Each structure stands twice: as C-alpha cells, then as structure tokens.
User: Fold these one by one.
Assistant:
Number 1:
Amino acid sequence: MTRPRRSLLIVGLVTSLLGVFLLAAPSLGSGFVPAGVGRAAPFALGGVGVLLLAGIYVLTGVLSSAPDEGGDTEGQSPETPTPERRPRYASLGESFARRLDEVSWTDRRETTPAARRSLRDDLRAMARRVLADSDQWSRSEVESRLDTGSWTPDLDAAAFFTDDVVPELSVRQRLRSVWSPEPVFARRARHAIAALANRATDTPVTPDLREETTAGQSPSPPASVRAYWGPGAETARERRSSRADGVVVAALALGGLGILTLTPSLLLLTLFGVVVAGYARVATPPTDSVSVSRVLDVEAPAPGTEVTVTVSIENTGSETLADLRVIDGVPPGLRVTEGSPRFTTALRPGKRASFTYCVEAAPGRHAFEPMLVITRDVTGLQRREALAEPAPTTLTCQHPRRPAATEAHRRRTTRFPGVSRSNTAGAGVEFHSVREYRPGDPLSRVNWKQRAKTGEFTTIDFDESRLTRVVVAVDARRETYQTVGRDADTPLVRASIAAARDIAMACLDDQIPVGLLAVSPRSCWLAPHAGATHRDRIQTQLTENDAFSWTPPAADFDVERALGTLTRQTQTATQVVVVSPLIDEEIVQFIRLLDAHGYTVSVRSPFPTEEGVSLSAGEGYAVLMRRFRINSLRNAGIHVQTEGTLEPAGAEETS
C-alpha cells in the first residue's frame, strides 16, 4: 500500500471511530452546539477535503496503479499482442537516427559539441570518397567544392560543410526552434546524406527519416503472444480494470460537492460509487476453464501458399463465460492475409465456438505459440488472462527444390573464384617432388631418365587433383535482422538464407562437397559432403535450425568462437563463401580473419529492396557504408558478388 493511501486509511479510521463514539454516547456532543460560521465551517472543510481526496486518488491511484494492474479500456487494449502482422524489426536507418538524436538545441552551449563534430568529420570523410569516385574529382577539388558548397544544388546539404558546427541562427530559425525539436545542424546532415547517396546509388534517397526511427515515437505493441506474456513461468494471471477507479473519483467529487452545497441528492449518488468500488474489491475473476484446438489445412505448403487455420474453443467449466476473448499465437514469420487470429464470444457451459483465418506460407519452420485466453465478468471490472496450450502445431515451408544435375562427371573446380592448391602428393599434372621408388608405383610415374643416368629407380609425385570443398557461411547475427523500406517486414537475413541455399544446391548439382556454417551466436555446423542425403540435410538445417529462424538472437556474436569452429573442422584448402548483407564492420573483420588464416574466401552480398521505393536518409547512410565495405574487401583481393536491386552505382561485380 502506498503512503498516501495509508494516510487516507488512518484518517478514515479515526473519523469512523469518532462517529461510532458519538452514536454510542450522544451526550458527549450535547455540550457543543455550533452556530453561524462554526456551523457551516465543518461542512465547507469536509467538502473541500473530499474533493482533495478525489484529486489525490486520481494522482496516486489511477495514474500509478492502472499500468501495474493492467488497466483496460473499451475495445482493443493497446497492450494486447497484434499477431496479424510480423514483429517490427529494426530499420536499417536507426543507427544514423540515433546519432542525430545526440544533436540537440542545448549542446550549442558546449565549448566543443562532441556529437556534432564527430558527425561532421564522418560525413566529410564520406563525402571525399563519394565525390572522388562519382565525379572523378581530385582531392583538392573535392575540398574546395565542399568548402564553397558548389558540390550540390541542395542549400541545406551545402551549408552542412560550409557553416560552423554551431551555426548562427536567423530570427526565423530561432522562432522555428520553439516548435521544432530538430536542430538546424541535424536537418542539414540529413540533406547532406541524401545528396551523397543519390550520387553513389541508382535508388532515390530522400532527406527524411522513417517515422519508426525518430525519437519520441511510442513503442509498438508486441506482435506475438510470447512477447506479450513475458519470460515468466506463470500460465495465468488476474488483472483489475481501472474503470472502478474512475467511478470512485466521480463519487468522491459528487460527495464533496454535495457537502459544500448541502444537497442530499448528490450525496445519494455517492452510494453508486461505493457499491461499484466494493464490488470491484470483493468480486473474483471468471474462470478460464476452456479447451482449445488448432488445425491447419496444409502443414507443409509451398512458399506463398495461403494456409487456413481453424481454431476451436470449448467451455469446459460450469459457469457461463459472458466475455471470452481468444488471441491465437501466430508465429513471427507468418503474415495473416485473411480473417483475424483474435475472436470474441460468450459461451455457456459445454458449448463450443470456432473461427478461421488464413496465413501466407514463408520459408522456414514456424511453430505456433500458445493462445492467449482473456475472460472478463459482466461489468468488465475483473479480468483473467491465461495461456492455453493446444496440441503442438507446426507449419514447415521448404524452399522450392532445384533439379539435381544429370552430368556423370565430377567437376574439379567450383564456380567461385580463387586458387585452391592441394597439399597432398600423388597423381596429377603439376610437379610436386621426387622420391624413392616403391613397389606398386605406376610405371608412368617412374623417372626413366634418372634410371638411365644413375641406374636408380625414382618416382615423380605431382600435386594430387582433389575435389575442392566448399563451406557456405551464412551471416545470421542480430544485426542482419533489419529491414529496408517503409513497410518492409522481411529482415535482410532471409535473403541471405535463400542465397545460401541456392549456392549449396548449385555445388551439390556439380557434385562438389559443400558444408554449412551459421555466423551467429546460435550454432549450426554441417561438414562438407555431397549426395542426395546431404542435400536434404542442408535443406532441413536452413529451414528448421534456430540459427535461421525469424526471431533475432539475443546474445552477441563471438568472432573468435566462430573462427575456431571453422578452423577445427576444415583445412585451409576449403573454400569459404560468406553470405552477408555487409551492414556492419564485425562481419568484415570475420571475413578478413578467414583470409588471414589462409582460406580462399569469396562473398555473396544480397541486399534486396522494393523497386521504385525511395530510401530514407538513415538507409542512405547505411547503403554508403556498405559500399565502402565492399570496396575495401575487393581492394584486399577478396571477391564480392552483389545481388538485389540496390547496388553501388558503377561498382557491380557479378562474375
């Protein structure tokens, strides 16, 4: 109990006891007969006191306890899960938006505004590289154009480099700062990024930010039942609605006005509030004795197929459920296309109800979550929430299978660039060494010239021709669970998984042994093999392994651990194909370490975006940084093949 409520309780008990004593012994008050001001003052003070109690109840009771007690409102509560849509993944522009949030109006008072200076230095270095590549300007010409602002017609973008980090504000800008939370420096930074990105890429970039990346946006409601319920082990919980609190406040206010105005009718209205408040305290939530079931019309559909989900609910208790609400636990990777996974009804004992909705199949293994069952009493004041576990329901959607190659021969090279030399001596075409003759050596490898000169038998060994092994390393770290585009709900990692599958199947079609590695804190490792059984094994891992699920990992990625797994399981002659969108420096570090350990490394970098859709300033910043990473890897001799509609202008390499 809070301190204000404890104080109110003590005051109420004291006054109640005083009233009981006066009723029991009226003679105690017979000597006190107030008149005039003395007669009216108690009523005035009492009325004012009751009104103050109403105000205190609003401040300490409603505002503080409603969220804790799960306060509900009419209709859809904003806290309930929204399984109709996929979870909201982070936008690719959020990192840049966070940097802009560090710039404020108040940091103008700082002697050296660190956030502003760091941002300007980074964008100026970026501008040097972009302008030198796109316009072929010399270093001195780039610096001159940046200083004069002649590199772009956008006045805001030009002023970002020509003006000071703490620009002098005009009268109009000072007036604008009253209602605009964004400083002039931050707005100019957005325009500078858009101008640079439009020079470097073919996809249009606007100076705006996505609404979900700007500061002050309210968090989205949880999209899944598990996210709404939280990590607790409980399966049921009770909540009291805040509607009774509003009635109590109104009753106290009316009672105070009735005392002040000496109006008995207003005092009688307070009885309604007393009854409601009492009922809310003593009433118990309805039972949640229901059984649920879920049926899919297709459990292993092809991608894009609409799957109908039928949910049935039965009241197995002895009480009528006047207000029963069910929210089905749709997996995060599925999108509802028709109907709704939420249902509201009233059920008598032994009665059953059902509803249906459709989801669109997406590649992966999608396990349905428990259902959220909400029961409320007739008044809506008491509410019980419970997790209902039907029989396990799983929808498994495989990628479409590629036809296996029908060639009888085995390729000796992969389709990925790079040299792979065998360390084993034997039959081949390239000289390796000369050794003593051993019984059973082929006569074709006997050094007959040496035999003619010295009379000794020797054997020539060559570099043995062996089939190159390939490991496909899929970047599935938490950072790859980001989206590009305004309404995008598919993270970038899904394109990497699809590309990894195509690479693996292409190698197996050529009968090249291929393995699989998840670059993620959630482990997945398959040693390189070939054959139909291994083909199915790779398909299963990419579809069902948790490392490639639709939910991002919670732990951080350990570069050394992943590198250790690869070096312990393979030889340096193995080719490693890293599939990654290359959206941060950590994956670049991993690729460089592989190259330093002697592996032949190539990179496949899918980066899909919707055609005809412009990017925000934050996404444009991420695209430019990705372009720099691609160029740095290529300059280091590492082959990078890009995929998707968004590629660096004039820098695409698809060999």
Number 2:
Amino acid sequence: MPTPSPVKYIDENGETKTITDYIELTGDESPDGPMFKNGGWFVVKGEVTYDEVQGHLLAFKQQIENGQCTGPDVNLILADGAKLTAKNENSEMSFRNLAVYAQSTGENMGKFEVYAENSTAISVFNAFTVYGGSVKAHSFEEYEYGIWAGSVTVNGGIVDAAGVSSGIRASDAKVIINGGSVTAAGFRGIFGSRGIEINGGDVDATATGVSEGFDKSYAIGSWYDVNVNGGSLTVHAKDKSRYGIFTEGVAYLNAGEVFADGEGSGIAARPTCSSSGVELAGATVTTNRYTYIDDLGTKSGFFVKVANDVLYTDGEGNFFEGFIFECNGYTGETIDKRNAIAGKTLRPVKPNIVVTQDGEGKIHAEINGNYIGEDDFIITDRIEVDEVKFERDFTTEGYSTIVLPFNIKTSLLVGVDSVLSFDGIVLDENKKKAVAMQVVWEKTSEEVELQAYTPYMIKMSDKSLEILGSVVLETTRDAVTEKDGWEFRGTYSFMKWTEDSPDLGRVYGFAASSEGDVSVGQFVKIAAGASIRPLRAYLIHNVPSTVRANGYYANRNVASIKDELPEQMNVVIVGKDKNGEEHTTVIGQFNTRSGEFRANSVKRVYDLKGRPMNKDARKVRGAYYGKNLLH
C-alpha cells in the first residue's frame, strides 16, 4: 500500500501541523472494516457520501467491553473544499471520543454533515470537540439528539445541531464554547448537565416546542451554572416553549452580548437546595422577562443582582447595583422590581467612568482622566448626573489638551484660566509651520459654553479640575476639529504608537518638558513608543489619496508627504488687535507622551506676516500671551 501524501491541519493550539499516518475516507469501505472499531486519524478529501439506504454506512460504533467503552477514538480532518455526508436510516454513528479539525478557517473549510432518521446523529461516550470545519448534525427521531456526548467543546468552526429532544446535550459534563459559530435547536436547544460556559464565538439556540411528558422546554440550560464570559448568546423559546435561558444554579453574565426571549420568560431560575438567579457582571443583557420557577415550592434565595463593583444602566436614566430584587415568593414589590427591568437592555457602565446613585437618589459620575487600562471611554446612553468628579493631574506651568464628554459653561469650571481651540496651521515669524489656536475663553471674559467631544487646550491655575453643578454625559462620538487637512483629534483610550503604526510620521504630540532639541510647548512629530491617555488630544495630518496635477489626479507617495512635514511646530495664538490686524503669539510646543503643555520662556508677539509687534499691542484682551500668561 502506498504511503499517503502528507496532510496539513490546524491543531488545538491554532498551529498548522502535518500528518502522514491516516486513513482517507472514500465512501465505499465495508461497514465491518476494522477501522470503524479501532479509530485513529481520518481525512476527507472532495465530496464523500455514505447513504445507509444505498448500502453505504459510515459505521463508527462504540465498543463496549465489561461495561467499559473502549473505542473508537476518532480524529477527523476535513480538507479544504471537502464534504463528508452520512445519511443514517436506522443505525446510530457513535464514538468513544471524536475530534474534528479543518485546514483553514474561511469559507472553504471542509464540511461534515450527518442526518439520522431514527437515532441520534452524532453520539460520543466521552468528549466531542470541534477545533474547526463545519459540522451539521440533524436527528429527526422524537426522543433523540443532534449531538449527544459526555462533554461538548467548540473551539472554532461552525456547528449546526438539531434534534427533537435536544440539539446539543452534554450528559456528564459541561458544554463549553470558546469560539466559532454554534446554532442549536430542539425541545432543549443546548443542555449541559454540569453547566454551560460560553467564552467566545456566536451562539444561537432555539427551543422549538413542548414535548409529551415534559413542560420545561428551553433554548439553553443546565442543572448547574450558566456562564457567559464573552462572545454573543441569542436564545429564543417559541411555539409554547417556556424559557430562553434556564438554570438551577446561577446565570453568571460576565461579558459579551446576551439576548434572551421566551414565551414563558427570557431567563428563568429554579432554586432547588440553594439560591438561584442571575448575576449581571459585565455582559450587555436584553430579555423580555426574569422568572422564578416555584414548582418545588417556595424557595429562598431567588435573585437578580449586579456583581460587586459593577454598575448597570437601562439607558433611560435608571441605574442598578447590588440586588435588583430577591424574594422568597412573589409579592407586589418583587413583581414591580422585576417588571422594572423586563424588556430592557441593561448595559454595564465602563470602569473608566463610574456612575453611582446615593441613598437620596442623586447620581454621581467619576471620570478617571488618568486611566491607562485597555478599555475605551464609551458612554452608550445619554445620562444626566447631579455631580461629576474629573480625576486628572494637570500641570500649572502651561497648557494641557482635554476632551470633555459633556457641555459645560466656563463659569462652572474651577481651576481653569483659559481655553483655546484649534484653528489650523499658519506660518510663524521664520516662515515655518505653526499650530494656530484661538482663544475660546479666558478668566476675565464672559462665560461661554464648551462643547462635548470637542478637543481644547486649557491653561490651569490649579492641578485639579473641579466641575460645579449637574451635567449631561453625552453619548460618545468623534472628537475632532478639522481644518485644511489637519485634525485636532481627541482620544478615548490609552494609545501607544509602534513602528508599525500607519499614521507614524503624520502625528504630533504636545511637549510638556524639554528633551534634546525639543522645546517645552511644541507640537513634536511622534516617534514609536510615544503614548497618550484618554480624553486628551493630538494633531494629525490627513494624507490625501490624490493630488491635482496638470488637470489630472495622481497618487501621491505617502512617505514623501511625511518627509515634508516638520519635526516640530510652535503653538501660536491667532488674534486681532484693536485695528483689526491679525497677529500671532508664540506660546509653546507639544509632548509626545503626556499631552501636556508648558509655556515658552520667550514671549514675543508677531503678526501673521511674521512682523514683531510692539509691547502696546499686548493690551488688547484675549489676543496675546504675556507676563501673566493669558488674561
């Protein structure tokens, strides 16, 4: 027998491996062949079909000796473009362990499809694991399953399982989904006897109706805990089915997206010997109803609660923390509390902004302007708060960049001397590019309202910013001021530029200290390793895709544009004197790391033509930078 050609596959660690010791399935093997009992590595290439009615059977069958299952253990590799189909009329295909692999993760990955008329489609005594490929298992017998196994784990690929009894059932352990796409339907769409754990991927489960002798039909459930740690979970219970998610333990909704809809209830808990309920700990959750199943009599400890140190909002100005409700039986108060969250989408408030409600009903927001974690600064719903605390360490030696997530009148800002806005790029006294800023407000002028998600530069008299009164936290949107191909762009997350950053060479940060040839207060071209925290701003030059030349548009070399940009740019205030003459005031430069700004030691005033202005010109309010900083 010739040696099989090497076959590649993606292993359990996502690495490409090669195997030569395998059996290629062809569709014409004898059902009594030893390979179906012994197991091993199998490969499918092209389209291969086993149809029991036509006398061809994919005859893998569990081997039982002295009450123990001894085989077969099967590792199945689906080659790209391959399709293995098994149509079973009366025989059940069964394994001790089954693992499915693919050669790729795209649309061309191989397929394994099983259709069973009178049995479970795929039956596995111990572990059924999908690392890749597309697996479809449909059973049409009343009390059978699409996939039945001791444990079921999906790490990738696509799984489509349907059975009259259950789509997927893990009889001895958990159903664990780490990635991929899983669709399941049945009287109980997905059941894990020892729990459900969803860590990633997209899961869609449906309860398809009631079954004779059983009334607890649900889309996904367990006698133990249901954990959603990531990915998305969508469940439906229809045609008189009862519940979307069912647990006799706790449904821990820790991360990801959860949508649960049930004719009886989207999420249901059935306390047995201990407390049972729902814990909201980071996932975004939408359900039509939360239900307490009391068929065992009134039990204590049914609850819906928010995990410690987490806050939820319904987007309608309501916030939830701690126990939303708990009960020993339904009372009018419990029903009211339950109904208050029914049919709503509950979202966690991100940790870089914490919103709480005190005992008097006042809502407080704390914004961490020093945040350097991985989470983006995101406000998904407009929120009115009675008090806001903005935590950030400011410099008092010059300017800082800032973005605020709310509109605010300058009279309600304590510790601010002046506010500037971006006004494009101009030429300074030496005919070099400079960053132009306009005075929005200064301490001696009448109040103005600063706009949410608009990047500003502010001069602080104190190292902290105090905000008086109530504000409305606005839904997060782009924070950009654009002029002549340049953007002053706000940040919502901790950003760090690397050698591979596509905008490197076009980005400028703000220098708060002198370093080498860099002067305090310049905008300096950012190098790899530079970083900036959220709710600050940086400057970036947008590269045009085409440039007009001789009546035609031609692509322009990005590298040449980067080379044309200056390494450093002064920051100047653009204003007009009492005669209406425009002029600029040099005030400093920019930091590549902190987004902070300090003043130049040399304070000279120039008009836009680069001509020095005499000292009397500085008497005009709001136009100059002088001995006492901005007026």
Number 3:
Amino acid sequence: MRVDDGVKREILARTDIGEVIGAYVSLRKRGNDLVGLCPFHGEKSPSFHVHPDRGFFKCFGCGVGGDVFTFVQKHENVGFPDALRMLAKRVGVEIENEDPRAARVRSEREAIYHANDIARTWFHRMLLDGRIGAAARAYCEQRGITAATIEAFALGFAPDGWDGLVDELRRNGVDLELAAKAGLLKPSQRGGFYDFYRNRLMIPTLATTGETIAFGGRALGDAEPKYLNTSTTPVYTKGRYLFALNVARRAAAREDTAIVVEGYLDCIAVHQAGFTNAVAALGTAFTPEQARELRKVASRAILCFDADAAGVEASLKSIDVLATEGIAAFAIRVPGAKDPDEFIRANGADAFRALLDKPLTATQVKIDAEIERRGNRMERGALARWAEETIRRLSSPAEYDRWRTYAAGRLDLDPDDLRRARLMVETGHFTRGAGTNGSRHVVPGTIEKPTFEREVLSIVLDEPALIAEYAERIPPERFGSERFRRVWDALRTHAGSLAQPSDVFAVFAGDDDAAATLASVSGAVRLADSDDRRAKLDRVVARFARDDAERRYRELDGEMTRLFEADRPIPDMLRAELNALSSQLKKG
C-alpha cells in the first residue's frame, strides 16, 4: 500500500495524539505532558508520557515510544496500513492513493468490525420497530430499562426468524462466511447461513475505541441458555474485555474506583441508577487480562457479584487476581436480593450508594467466607490455628491484631487464643500480605509510601512563600534522597527571603547539581492555587504522622510477640498503647 506523504502529514495534523491514546489509557495532566500507566508493560507507578505539543509518546519504564501511528500499531497489533486506515477514518481523511486491490480487500479485523456495526444498528432498529420489537420493549420495561438507557447502550432485538440478519448483511455487501466467523451467523447443513441470535434482547460490547467487538443475547422468556454470547473471534477473546468499560472509564478514572458486577443487565441497571463507573466481568471471575484493563483507569475496585454460591466464589477468586495486578479490592453484599439489579429495583439508588459507601475489605470477605466454610467443623485448638494462619496469609503484620480481634469474635474465641496459636504455626507456610492489599484502606496496615520529595520541591518552586510555612513541619530527615534533602535543607535556611521562583534558583547560583535537581522537579506537580498547594503539603505532613504511628504499632506488636513466646505477661500499659494506635490508624 502506497500513500502520499501529504496524506500522512494531514492525518497527523488532524490527530490529537492525547485524545487517541486517552481512549486506551487513563491519562492525567502533568505540566505540558499527559501521564499514565504504560499499556505495554505492567507497572504500578506511571512512567508513560504523552507529549501532545510534540506529537509523540514515550515510556520511561520499558522504552517504547513513537508517534500516533506507532501507538496504534502496537496496541492494536496491526501493521502500518491498518493503523493508517483507522486513524484516517477517525479524522475524516480519504486515502486517495491506496493500492486498488488493497482498497477492495479490507483486513479481516476491519471487516468483522464493519459486520458487527451493521448487526448492532439492525438489532437496535428492530427493537425500536413498533411491531417487531414490541415484546422486547415490554421486557425492557419490565426490567426497568428506560428508553434513554436503551439508546446509551445501543440495546437491540434479534427477531424470532432465521434470515433477518442474513438479509441485512447481504444488502450491505458483507461476506457471510466472515459474518459467521464473527459469530453473527451459523452455517446451515443445507447450505448457506442462518441467524445465530433469535428472539433475544441484544447487548453489544464495545472496545474503548468504539468498535463493536461482541454481543450478548438475553432470552426474553424461559428459553435456555439464558444468554448466548459471542465466542472467540479474530476481534474478541472472552476474559480479555470488560463490558461497559468504554462508557465507564472516564467516571472510573475520575473516582479512581470501578464497580465490578457479574452480568450485562446488572451493569446496565447500576449505570441507570447513576453509578456510571460500573463494568461487568461477564464470567465466573476476573481474569488477569481484565484486571490489567481495569488498572489502566482505576486503582480500586468494589466487587458486587451475585449472592449465590457461584457469585461468592467468583468474588473470592477475583480478589486474588485484582490484588496480584495491584488493584485494591473491596466487596459489598446486597441484602435481600440475588443481584444488584434486583436490589436497586427494590430499594433504589440511595440504598445502593449506602452499600458502596461502606464496602467490606477484601480481608474481611475472605475471612468470613473461610469461617462460614470451615468454622463449624473444627475443634477449638485447630480453629484458632486455622484463623491465625488465615490472618497471616491474607494481611500484613501491622493488621494482625485487628483481624485477630475480628476473627475471635466470629469464632467465640479469645484474641489471645489466636496469638498463642502463632507458636504452633510454621512461619515458612505463610506469604505475608500475599492474599490482598485491599484492607489497607480500612484497618491498621502499611500504606505504600509514594515518593513525595519531588512533589514538595515542585510545589514550593511554584510558590516559594510556602517554604517558611512548612519548614518545621517537613524536616529534612524525612527525605530519602540525599540530593533532594540537600536542596530542601538549603531552602529552609533561606526561607525568609524567598518570594519568587527566581529567588529559589538564586540560592543555588553556581551549584550545577542543585540547579539540575530543581529543573528536574519543575512542573512535576501543577496545582491551581495556594489552597490546593497547602492541601497537598498537609497530606504529606499527615502521612508522616501515620508512618510514625504504624512504625510504633509494629514495634509494640513485636514486643508483645516476644513476651508471648517467653510466656511472660503483657503489661496493661503496652496493651493500652497498642489499642490506642489501632483506633488512631483505623480513623485514617
């Protein structure tokens, strides 16, 4: 395929690289750049930078970089011609000099996207048809699905016939064999093809870039199976995509939280109730691929699976998968209902919001499930050992006493029974904190300390007057980096004379290393005004206090452990201090 260089330049000129990449990756503004988690390798701290003004991207973690064509090629796993066509279509540029034969033969993926789009449009039209779609619209009304929601999710209806979609695809010049490969049709034993979906509410799944990649067909009555779903195709692999991520990703990124439900209609009901950060796993449990997709937009997930045994089991498995991918997992239980859809219809959006406001930590969910599964079938000594082992497996050391108290209450034991049981449990059997990281938001635990030095120096470089205000509250010894510590210490010394950024640089005139350090943090944090900058610095100071409390908590826990192992009594003063710290840490 040969394309004139002028056409390529026009596509690049019309394309906003930030907008294109932002459809795949959650990006946040940082100075003139956009920053997010790299989609090409696993990472927990963002090192992926997009430079809209210069038209290229670069990951400082894995080294991948290039222009918007390069990004689309790598992310979509397509060649340059396909990437060119996709971007040309996006910005409305006609590729005039394409090779005639290549123009007649679309790539298989593009052709399937095209067939799926035609099918989606036809299904939607059938649902809105006054006569053909009457039963399906009545079903939607029965489920509480509004006309606005039907439009928002492009819901449709597959009539109870054998060739309605076949005829529509044929009219639009779609290769029927390829449509069968897309999962829309089935080959007939008598030759030809017939519609795969019949008499079903049709729910399309879209990629975050807008292409229709799959369908779910819900039976209107008692027909089995209840759902017919697209199987693996050249554009869709079950367990890789999340339903509704295309419409939920901006709200999820804004709140840094995604609500994860089990099925299509649960997800649609949650969106309709106003919770637009909901996605559906469309399977029995989360897969690592889905977790990585979710991690691109949020670091926190609230699981809301069905209340039956399969739903509970899916929640337990999902917690482990999410934790492995660095997502803090929580869960809610829907009382008196089998799923979120039923709960919302019975109790309303406010009741559902109340559940979301107080989610269960992942550690509690797993402990509760294990207690319910095994608690009544073990003698007291074995029960205490099992509970201690479970707590050590699912939580971090600083959380042990919190969960000992909780588990002992559930098991009608004394917390000290669990503490003594630790002596009978081989520590080699445990992987500390490997179970989940979700509990760190609620119970006393370790919080991963972000690097704050850059943020502090960047903020005071924008507003040097803040140095005097925070000089004593942020002591230099808190800085882990020697070069940042040296700069901060010098700024504290000259705090009274610093009013403008130029004053800061003047302090280090002739000191190339310090000047380079300041230049490296310039623009690392961009906040609107003094109030926002103070709020950020106050959070840094609060983090110091929490770090100190956690450090002391661990010291006390270690001392109590040594006393237990020596069979010596624990002083009341030690217990009181530990309990006070536990309460302090729980309050956040």
